[in-house]
Design goal:
By secondary structure, the protein is α/β, with parallel strands linked by helices. It has helices at about 10-15, 45-50, 60-65, 65-75, 95-105, 115-130; strands spanning about 55-60, 80-85, 110-115, 135. It has a four-stranded parallel β-sheet, with helices on both faces. Helix 5 packs across helix 6.
Length: about 160
């Protein structure tokens, strides 16, 4: 499976033909951010607003046994078919390509990655390769609190 070229915001916001223009800092964020008590129980509702009918659910084995039950129940309640995928624990090229290959012919509308940062990062990469919407769900309350202090994660050049 060919890997699409890497996305570089600098090519868009500071093109090479404008050498006098300083390189801007670019903040890339999801178009929707939903936070609050019980949002996992409404996952199906939120995805139905995007007309999703069939989604892949990427979680660790533990995640499928715990928070995954709430997500699956919500998807079923909204009439959304789901394909469970077990995240192996590392955001590696091998893991990403294996899931992308397994899901390539499944005609999914979105990919839900629920868990920690590695799972969510892998899910975004898989969704990008499949050209579907990524949806990330940190399922534990400690990971969904608002950020009080933040620093840019874009390196200064």
């Amino acid at each position: 499976m060919p890997v699409p070229p890497a996305y570089s915001p600098f090519e868009i916001f500071a093109p090479a033909d404008t050498p006098d223009m300083p390189r801007p800092r670019v903040f890339i964020a999801p178009p929707r951010y939903i936070q609050g008590r019980g949002v996992l129980h409404a996952t199906g509702r939120y995805l139905s607003l995007l007309s999703a009918k069939r989604v892949a659910l990427l979680m660790s084995e533990r995640g499928h046994r715990t928070a995954g039950r709430d997500v699956v129940a919500s998807l079923q309640g909204a009439g959304i078919e789901h394909l469970p995928r077990r995240f192996g624990g590392e955001c590696s090229l091998e893991e990403i390509e294996a899931h992308a290959a397994a899901l390539a012919g499944e005609k999914i509308d979105a990919l839900i990655a629920a868990g920690g940062g590695k799972c969510i990062d892998a899910g975004k990469s898989i969704a990008y390769r499949l050209d579907v919407r990524p949806s990330s769900r940190p399922p534990w309350p400690r990971t969904t609190r608002p950020v009080r202090r933040s620093r840019s994660s874009i390196p200064r050049t």
